[in-house]
Every structure is written in C-alpha cells, then in structure tokens.
Amino acid sequence: MEKLKKVSPFRLSSLLRLQKDPKLAFKLFLQPNPNDPKPFRHSHLSYDLIISKLGRAKMFDELEQIIEKLRHDTRIIPKEIIFCNIITFYGRGRLPGKALQVFDEIPSFRCQRTIKSFNSLLNSLLICREFEKMRELFLSIEKLACPDVCTYSIAINAACVRGCLVDARDVFDVMLKRGITPSVVAFGTLINGLCANSELEEAFRLKKMMERDFKLRPNAFVYVALIKGLCKGNEVDSAIKLKEEMLRKKVELDSAVYATLISALFKVGRSEDVFKLLDEMKKNSCQMDIITYNAMIHGYCMQKDFDSAFGILTEMEGKGCKPDVISYNVIIRGLCMEGKLREASELFEDMPRRKCFPDVVTYRILFDGLCDGIQLKEATLILDEMVFKGYLPRSSSISKLVDRVIQGGDTDSLWMVLNSLAKGKFSDVTTWRMMISVVFKEDRLSNTCELLDSLITRKEDALSIL
Predict the structure, then answer these.
(1) For residue 15, which of 36, 2, 33, 3 has the smallest C-alpha distance?
(2) pTM of this prediction?
(3) What is the pLDDT of residues 173-192, one digit of tens each?
(4) What is the DSSP string of 3-65?
(5) End-to-end CA separation in angstroms for the chain
(6) Which helix (H) or strand (E) holds 300?
(7) Where are the annotated PPR repeats, by residue (predicted)?
C-alpha cells in the first residue's frame, strides 16, 4: 500500500480553503497528520482561514479552542486583523463580553492593539446595542489609540440608532474640529439618521456640503437614504428626480432604489407608474430580485388586490427567484387585515409545500388576525403550535385572547391557553398575574363565577405554572 503523503503547512491552507464543512475543517486543522506524533507547524494563513470558517458558522466553542491554541503557539506572531475578525464574529453572535475579552487580551498574543481593533470592538458593541459600554470606551479612547474617521462614523451611527440626532451632530462637529476629514460613510451615516427622522432639509444640506466643501461624491447608500426620506414624506416626485440625478451622475442604481420608489408609488395610488419603473429597470440591466418583488407584493396588498399579489409569487417562482418568508408574511398580513382569515390560514398551511416555513412573525400575524376575528378556537390551536416550536405571541396578544375567551365564558379554552404556555415554560409570574388581572376586572365579575370555581379546583395546575 502506498504511504500517505504528509500534509504540509502550505497544503493545509489549501485544504482548509476548499473544505466547505466547518466541522470537518476544524477537525482537519487540529489533526492534519493524525498518525504523526510530531507537533504541526500551523501557518498564520491556516489560523486565519479556520477562524473565519468557525466564526461565520457561529461555532464559538470550537473558535475558543483555536484562540487558545494561537495564544500558546509562540512561533506565530498574529496580525491584528485576526483579532478584528474574531471581535466582529463575537459581535454578530451577540456575545459582547467575549468581544471585550478578546480586545483586552490582544497583547497576550504578542500583538499590538491599534485603532483598527478598537473600531472593531466599537462596532461589535453597537451590533449588540451595548451603548453604555461604547460610551465608556469612547471617553477613554485617548489612552488606547488615536480616533480616526471610522471611529467617529461608528459613534455617529450609534447615536442615530438611539435616536439621539443631537449627539450624532455633536460627534460629527467634534470630528471636523479635530481636523479629521469625514468620509462618504461618515456623511452617509448621519444623512441616513436624519432622513429616518424626517429631517430632510438638514440631510440635503449635508449632501451639498460633502459635494461642495469636501469634493466627495455621494454613493448609492446616501441616495437611497434621501430617496427613502422623501418617500416617507410622500414626496414621490422629488424622490424620482433624485433617482434621475443618480442616472446622470452614473451612480449605480440597485434594487433598493427601485423597491423604495415602487412602494411609494403604490402608497400614493400611482400604481400605473410602477410599470414604467419596471421597464426602466430592464433598460438599466437592473434585475428584479426578492426586494423589488416583495415591494410589488406589498403594493398590491395595500390595494387589496390579492390576486395580483399571488400572481407575483407565481412569477417569482417562474423566473427562479424563490419567495422568502417575508413574501408570504406580507400577503398573510394583508388577508388578515381584510378579515380574509380562511385564505390567510390556507396560505399559512401551504407554505411548507412551497418550501418556505413560517417564522415567529408569520405565527404572530395569523394569531393576531384570528384573535381580532374572534376565531378563538383556531387562535388557541395556533398558540399551542407556536409554543411547541418555541415561539410566543406578544403579551398584549395573549391578553387579548384571554380577555375574549373569558368574555365568552369558555373556561376550557382558557385552560388550554394556560396549559400551552406552561408546556413551553413560557408562563411566569408576570403572565399569571396578567391572567388574574383579566379575570378580576370589576365589570367582568358577574360573568366569571364558573372560572373562579375552576381556578380553585385547578389549584395544582396554577401552582405548577407559577
């Protein structure tokens, strides 16, 4: 039998790059030559590859093993970018504590921290909405590194996410005072925040400033923010003019621009102009995608034209663009709002056959629709199915269901609701108190004698829920 060739460090990097399964890649990294007792000399590239694969797959336990191995692999002097990636992966995984820990420990890996890893940490904390920790770090930044335009852009974004536009402007002004030239991203972040809060005059002033004073060319993100802001205020003609400006200045138009305009035209009752936009998309070689198709579906649902909305689903499938859960949720919501609960339930049941499975939003839409339509038995069954899948309606929706069940004097259905919640271990003291508060409303006492008797006789059930 021919002896197997040993895997070299260079060969390992090639194999890791080709390996699609992160579990197999992890195993390969740890044991590239299982029969060789000698320690393997991993390269910087192989560490980078395995960290990226595990991070994208959110295999954080395995990632920690690689990090520890890297810490003790004294032959390797890691580059800071590796730690920037690790911090980013922890941020996306909603693990801010881990991101902070990695940043603090960078020096123990024989690597110097710079503003790059600091910015990665700030952005990860932003993803995790750890605003207070971000503020603490930002105040102590001078001890760690010299802030750059990326640092300020992240801080501006954090202020916009919190809805504190005064803080966002202050950060922008501080950046200018320190002589740091704002980037397109910095301008775009603040413009987006202003547009989201309908401060369009200030947003357009900033656009003019970036073009005139800094000779910066607005990118698609800036234009999309402005177009969305105009459409939000029903200034559709101004939004279309801005789209024309993009064409003149050869800024690439993507599907987000057209989707925004399509939704706005439907909203103001100008559906006939939508087809002109679709023709323009074809001329500009901008393909219809899931975003634009969903905008069409939403528009038809606003018009209560559900046949056309279903027609878009069929068209998507015919053109190889698979409808996603949002496509179905939009139609189900529209049907529920129009009281077409049977059609909504049928589409809900048909989703798995169409290879798209309901998510928590789908269940909540249908549950709320059934409660509003006083189809309480069906709502109770959907609740039980939700709990089985690990989902839960909003507390206000549960309260509405319980309230209406009690109004109808249906004690059995009430206990079905309580038992469903208990099965999923979702019922806590707060939930139980909510139930009790509904039962003991003064204007309902005359209708709840039977229920109170049940509460007493089912004492053990109540205690188990608590």
Answers:
(1) 33
(2) 0.77
(3) 999 999 999 999 999 999 99
(4) PPPPPPHHHHHHHHHH---HHHHHHHHH-SSTT--SPP---HHHHHHHHHHHHHTT-HHHHHH
(5) 67
(6) helix 290-302
(7) 148-182, 183-213, 219-253, 254-288, 289-323, 324-358, 359-393
